[in-house]
Amino acid sequence: MALITADRERFPNTPWQLVETRHQPGSAGTLETLFALGNGHLGIRGAHWAASDADLPGSFINGLHEIWDIKHAENAFGFARTGQRIIYIPDANNFTVIIDGESLTLAESAVLDYRRSVDFATGIYECRITWLCRSGATVTTTERRAVGFASRGSLGISLEVASDREVSADVTSSVINRQDQPVEDHSAHDPRRAGRHAGRVLLPVRTDGGDGSLRLSWEAAESGQRVGIAVDHWTSAGHQPFETVAGEDDSSVRYVLAVRADEPFRLEKSVSYAAGRGVQDSERDAAEAAEAGLRSVEDIFTESREHYREYWDTSDIVVGSQSELQQAIRWNLFQLAQATARADIAGIPAKGVTGSGYEGHYFWDQEVYLLPYLTYTNPDGARQVLEFRHDMLPAAKIRAKELSVDGALFPWRTINGLEASAYYAAGTAQFHIAAAIAFATNRYLWASGDETFREGMGAELLIETARMWSSLGFFGKDGLFHIHGVTGPDEYTAVVNDNLYTNVMARFNLRTAAALDHPGIEDAERELWEQAANRMQLPFDDDLQVYSQDNDFMTLEPWDWTTPRSKYPLLLNFHPLVIYRHQVLKQADTVLAMFLQWQDFSANEKRRAFDFYDPITTGDSTLSACVQGIMAAEVGHPEAALEHFTNAVFIDLDDTHGNTIDGVHIASTGGVWSSLVSGFAGLRDQGHLPYFDPRLPAEWETLSFHLKIQGRLLLVELDSGALTLSVRTGGPLDVDVRGQVHTIGEEAVRVALDPFEVPERTVFPSGPPTASLPIVGFRA
């Protein structure tokens, strides 16, 4: 059921903000995700400040986690041993406001006016509520929040209380350890949701407080990771706190005062967190480290404004004549910035720092769905993610030996570098993560020209992943190279032989490594890689003239497409073995391979594959709609392309998968970026030159964006009749547009585009049409 698009009075269509104009019970948790703030390191959910008005409040630091021993019902060699889960850090976004003895809450108090917003242009959250108190006073509370960027561990919060008459105010500001609070277990029967720990996680190390200041620190019971928080308060007119209480789970600073009509009470709360390598490697207490990072609230707000002013200068994507889509696009781009901007040398969790979904783990999502965006908008950020993967190489080499392969085997899901997926069929068997890392490495090298990275970390990543593939696969009796016992991106078909996506991406990995001029590669090894790549088995169905998802996929029983919508997603309603024996996809698999390795397949092969697989793809994965849309655009199905894109851009805003409460689907937001740049603008990379083959929807007047590519800032402007390119910074750049090479400089080059001929859909013998999620109700 739609959320944002279903009530445009409550959620007006504003191009640079997400706004809520009326409070309505029932969707608080989802809105806490949609109004969350973050910088890639620190995240705070968009919960209301009153405890009774919050559903799943919390704050997170990327990578800060607890571990535990995974207990398998039936054990086996090589199973994942160490579970990892992101920690709810002590949360500073908590206030109690009592006016004339009445505690103000949305649940219990009379509300005259309500408006909250998150501003994409500044990164500032604001919630203004006007209350009619039982005493007769009209009181307005205004809360504003922002996270730091230059100071990435900083959070600034201000709360103003204004009244139309003198009132007695009792205001308490709290820091709550939510990790060890009893809450509902949201993980039941849904592997996408985060579980909870049975015992206490955060052990108090320091609990100091006085005169409105708090200095607190904890250590995780098993991982030993430390987190510290320093909080200072400032008030208008210099009000002194009534009391300051420091505790291991609940600390507070309380103010009791009279608020006059002509003098609002303003409370500013400056918060600084310290966690991660710097704290772990230092003998200094984490609270002391946090104290050193304290900034004034206004400085934090200024940092946020300055960051987003610079960000939007080169990262905005503008669609002409589509105001509703424009707001949604900017919200998705805003989430990408919030998930990545100050992650530094770290991975990007599947939910960013907006929630605890997927336990805060890093998957292949970051390489295939996020790094295209980072590579072309923030190449330094892309390099840092790859450096983080490189830091995992020692553990990945140990894991490879455990699974009897050479080189490096990266974990399917992890925080600390160890495999955390207890279900190997949909976890460890997804060896294709190795090729995703190699692919992202090569894309970064191609787009950045970073020779230092190429000669060092980049070469190591490409070489060690190639060694894994050459030992995992084998040459069969037919003389072809086979890779057996793997799971591709489509987790509804598991542990198969010769998954096409896996083999295509492994072939790329092997060829790219073999082409390196590196002293660590011996001639015999290079020859092995080349032969394995050249003889790679790619399953093909001669009857249907379609590449098969794996050796046996075309022999499976078709799924019963009369299955009611209430039974989707299938993973929550059917045993895996039921799903595995049917011809049904969770997400794009073969179609994704043809997008990423675009030069390896003909236009006809891509079209027939899309026409065959799209109707049997459920869209149960949020990773799918964007890829389906990109390929629909390429093969000439413009209506399907726009439908899939619309689905992708509203996945979280309309909570179409029912789990936005657990955090933003960050990979999908990256897919939205790729849908615009690679789908409708038709960018393809890693070839001889940057290549464009645009497919602008008929309903759109224009599409424009920037790319940081090979040392230039390229402006791309597309309309219905032409592609216009210009280099804003840097020297000239050769670009291929539909087979014609153009040299692009500061002066804009306008390339006329002939209309694209829409082919007839391929007709295959099949059952009812797709069970994909219904497209969001939307009017252009």
Report what the structure shows:
- The structure is a single chain.
- 28% of the residues lie in helices and 24% in strands.
- It has 780 residues and is an alpha+beta fold.
- The radius of gyration is 27 Å and the shape is globular.
- The two termini are 19 Å apart.
Characterize the overall form.
globular
Radius of gyration: 27 Å
Largest sheet: 9 strands, antiparallel
> Low-confidence segments, ≥5 residues, pLDDT <50?
767-780
* First-to-last CA distance: 19 Å
Number of strands: 34
- Count up the helices: 18
Strand arrangement, largest sheet? 1-9-10-11-12-19-16-15-14
Global structural class = alpha+beta
Indicate the proportion of strand residues: 15-25%
What is the average per-residue confidence, as pLDDT, rounded to a whole number?
Answer: 95
What keywords describe this structure?
780 residues; alpha+beta; nine-stranded antiparallel beta sheet; five-stranded antiparallel beta sheet
Ordered list of secondary-structure elements with their pairings:
Blueprint: E1 17-20, H1 28-34, E2 37-38, E3 42-44, E4 59-61, E5 65-69, E6 82-86, E7 91-99, E8 102-103, E9 110-119, E10 124-132, E11 138-147, E12 154-163, E13 167-176, E14 202-210, E15 213-220, E16 226-235, E17 243-245, E18 250-259, E19 265-275, H2 277-280, H3 286-291, H4 297-315, E20 318-319, H5 323-340, H6 365-377, H7 379-391, H8 393-402, H9 433-448, H10 451-472, E21 474-475, E22 481-482, H11 500-514, H12 523-534, E23 540-541, E24 546-547, E25 557-558, H13 576-580, E26 582-583, H14 590-596, H15 603-613, H16 624-635, H17 638-649, H18 666-680, E27 683-684, E28 691-692, E29 702-709, E30 712-719, E31 722-729, E32 733-737, E33 740-744, E34 749-752
Helix pairs in contact: 5-18, 6-7, 6-9, 6-18, 7-9, 7-10, 9-10, 9-11, 10-11, 11-12, 11-14, 14-16, 15-16, 16-17, 16-18, 17-18
Domain Glycoside hydrolase family 65 central catalytic: 330-673
GO molecular function, one term: hydrolase activity
Domain Glycoside hydrolase family 65 C-terminal: 683-743
